[in-house]
Each structure stands twice: as structure tokens, then as C-alpha cells.
Amino acid sequence: MGRRPAHRGAGRRHADGGAAHPGPGAAAQRIRRRRAGRLLHDGRLPGLLGLDGARRQAARLQHHRHRIAPHRDAGGSVASPAVIVIGAGPAGIRAAARLVEAGLRPVLIDENERSGGQIYRRQPAGFTRPASALYGSEAAKAVALHAAADALAPRLDYRPGTLVWGIADGAVLTQRGDRLERLPYAALILCSGATDRIMPLPGWTLPGVYSLGAAQIALKAQACAIGSRVVFMGTGPLLYLVAWQYVKAGATVAAVLDTSPSRRRVLAAAALAARPAVLAQGLRYLAGLRRAGIPVLTGVTPLRIEGHGRVAGVVVSDRAGRERRVEADAVGLGYGLRSETQLADLAKARFGFDAVARQWLPETDADGRSSVPLVYLAGDGAVVRGADAAELAGRLAACAALRDLGHAVPEEEFSRLRAALRPMSRFRQGLENGFPWPGHLAAMLPNETIICRCEAITAGAIRRTVAETGAPEMNRAKSLGRVGMGRCQGRICGLAAAEVIAAARGVPVEEVGQLRGAAPIKPLPLTAELGPDEG
Hints:
FAD/NAD(P)-binding domain, oxidoreductase, five-stranded parallel sheet, FAD/NAD-bd_sf, 3 domains, alpha/beta, about 525 residues, single chain, globular, eight-stranded mixed sheet, Arc Repressor Mutant, subunit A
């Protein structure tokens, strides 16, 4: 079940393409549509190709005498390139720790204000809930990771609350508050994590619809539920975990609706048995939901989310083909996870189509090396295998970086880490096969269903673009029809849009190609100050 190599010629970047991730809570909000005002790394506005039809130079925001500030050390001098780790979740923390062990002082950049990542997300300052309430059976792992991160902080150049919005010319481009900065790297370890996979359906843009990740953030970070009567719908282990967490917190869960039939888990049992303790924990979550009297339906087909002004209920077709409606005022929606790969794309890493996950993923060797020298990937941003695997992969990628930079790393350490990851890779295949991404649902979506909510592009509009223009792949459809051109840059809509295009063309989804990224991967504030001239 390997990956099909990508061809850089087909589906290459377009100068028009750019957008960004709305964040987990965006599914609950109405999008206010305005003209794009984001900056590309050279100051141009997205969609402007350099010259207009009259051969005049395109509009450009002038930097005048200012440029992005260079990286400076504590004394104010321009610093030498360091090893940079992006992401302070399980993979990033363990990678940084291994670099520190070798005597380095790496730069650790994280978009969140506190380390831990999504799975071990910390509660805000002033909140005092015990770890057992936040993380359940994973509390000990969370506490250990947080303690390791806190102990590392004085030995790192730690930059929380900092967005990496681009990678170019051997440097990462960052933004924190109103300051932009350019940080050259000696080596780069990308630990960018993953986001929810979403399959749209009629009504999914109603207020009250959240991704599973957003529902989990509300519970962990703010100790609140997304609604008073919640339906969780989708597939994958996160579906059952978040539902169980809500029940444990005392919230009312109206139903758990799983698109994958139970027999898929039976067929995947051999691969799932590669991690018996994790499999047993998942079965305990399911048993806990059943003991609580929560209806759990498998093999359903989502039809629509109903409501006027906000969610009122969910309608699905069950395994027997009967329509069933569940009243609810909120929906948690998600179909597993997708690797966050846009930074790897900007770093010019080679991608391949992963037939197991039905996604384009960066190609790496066993130790996390990408196709680009001194650029490494670890954790769910490379392949979704969970937090335990992310910790191991982060350390392994750091070992690879150290060796490539000329540091001695025992071969035994490589062997031990590789061996520990093997059963996790097998388990991951079991999860993907047991809880498959329901790409086939895209062909059934009514034409009026919004796919790209940033640009209000419907399934019908995508189909018309394919039919009328012959757009053969994602980037052409983006250029001609604007799908994936908005704020989320295809993070939310990209996988579903690819399935719609594939169904319209009658081809396998891998033939639709990879949606390319462009800097900035997330919008930058126009108030951001550019640093002094680099000289």
C-alpha cells in the first residue's frame, strides 16, 4: 500500500493560489466574504501575476526601505543558522529534546501559546482541572510531555504564538503579533500535526456545526460543550474518543453516527491487533458509550443537517436504507485526520499519493528525511499514526538531522526507534481500512451543497467547471473555479473537492492531483511591521 510518486510538472503551483486554515471553530461561524487582502512573501497580492492585460506592473504593497527582519541573537547580532523545529506537540518536543541532548540550542516554533499540541493541549492559565479529567487514560503521557517541554524551555530558542507562514531560500518566514521575521536554518524538522478530514453535506455550514477537533478544544481549553444536545458524526477513532469525553464530562450526547460499517473493523482486526492496548482502549470507549445509553449507528449515509439559523437535527440513512432523524443543537463532524503538509510543500518536498489514506503525503525515508536535503518530517504531519508514534518519530528525525550535520548518533538508537514504529505503522493501516474515508459520498452530494465555504463554491459549480472547461486536476479547477482559493487554502475543502472532481471525470482521485500551497499559508495582518533592512 505504498504511495504513488508525484510529478512536479503536473499540478505545479499557480501564482493565484493562496489561503489558509480557518481554525477548528470556524465551522460554527458564518463566513463574512470580503476581497482578499493577504500578502505573498514578496509583497504581491494573491492572484496578480506580475503584469495586467495592458502590460502594466501589477498592484504591489510597497515595503519601501523595510524588509522582513533577520534572525538576531540575544546580543542583537545576526544569528547563525540553527536547527529549527516547527511544532511543539509530541513530535516537536521530542525532536527538540534530542537536539538539546547533543549540545545544540534549537529554535522551537509553535503557533499555540502553550506546548503540547492538540492531543495534549493544555488548559489556559488559571484553569485547575486535573490531568485525569483532561486526558483520561493518557494523563500520565500528557503530564510527562508537558514536564519535558517545561524543562527544555530554558535551553531552547522557544517561540510560542508564532506562525510560520512560508519557507523560502533556506529560511522560515514567521509572524508573531505585528512582527515578521526571517529565520535561516541549518536543518529543518517539520512537526506540523494534522487537522480534521471533512466531507461536506447539506447544512454543514449552519451555526452549531463543529469539527471533532474543535469540539475537543472547547472541552479541553474552555471546559464547555459545543451544545446542550450533541450528535457526533463521521468515522474514525477520534469520533468515539470525543463522544466518550463529552459523556464523561456530563454533556448530553444524542447519538454517534459512523459512516463505516462494523464489518470493516473485523476485516482490519489483524492490523489493529498490532497495538493490543490501544485497541482495547478503543473498545472501552465504545462500551462506555453503550453503557451510557448513547445510540451508536454504524454504516450510515449522512443526508443533511437541518435547521434555520442554527442546527436543529441530523438526518441519515441507516444500513437498511431507512431515513432516521436525530434532534440536536450541535454537531461534531470528522472523518479521521489529514496531515498538515503545506509547509512541506513550500519546502519543495516530493509528494506521493498514499492509497491507504487517499491523500497526497510527503515522501520520507524510514528516519524522516524528505527529498530535500536537511529537511525532515515527523509526527502526524508526515503520516497520521498518533501521539505515541509522533514522539518516537520526532526523536528519530532529530537523530537523522544530527547525523547528517556530522554529529555522532549510535546506530542502536536508530534501530530501536525504527523497530518501535513498525507496529504503529501497521496499526495505522488497520485504522485507515477499518474507518475508511467515505470519498464515494462526494458523488452523491446535491449540486447546491457548499464544498469550499471560504469562496462559497458548491458541488454543482465544481462539476460545471469540470464539464465546461475540461479542468483535469485540482489546481486547474482552482484557477478556473476558485475552489480552494480562499482563507483555508484547501485544508477543509481540498479532499472533498478532489473527490467531486474525480467523480465528475470518472477517474480515480489520485488522477486529480495534489492541491499546491502558496505562501502565506495563513493570512497575515496588514498591520504587521516589517523589520529593518537586512543590509
